Amino acid sequence: MFKEMRPEDVIAPRGEERNIKRNTVVVEIDPENIDYEKLAFCAEVIKKGGLVCFPTETVYGLGANAFDPVAVDAIFEAKGRPHDNPLIVHIDGYGMLDLVAAGREDEMDRLYRLGQKYWPGPLTIIVTKDSAVPDSVSCGLPSVGIRMPESLIARELIRLSGVPIAAPSANLSGRPSPSTAQHVIQDLFGRVDVIISGGDARVGVESTVLDVTGPVPTILRPGAVTLADVESVLGSGDLPDWRIPAAEGEKPKSPGMKYTHYSPDADVTIFDGGTEAVRDRITRETFCLKEGKCGVLTTDGGESFYKEKAKAGTVVLSLGSRDDMLSLTHNLFSRLREFDALGVTAVFAEAVPATGIGNAVMNRLYRAAGGKVISC
Question: Where are the beta strands (DSSP E) in the chain?
Answer without folding.
Answer: 25-28, 52-54, 61-65, 88-90, 123-128, 143-147, 165-167, 194-197, 208-211, 218-221, 267-272, 294-298, 315-318, 346-350, 373-375
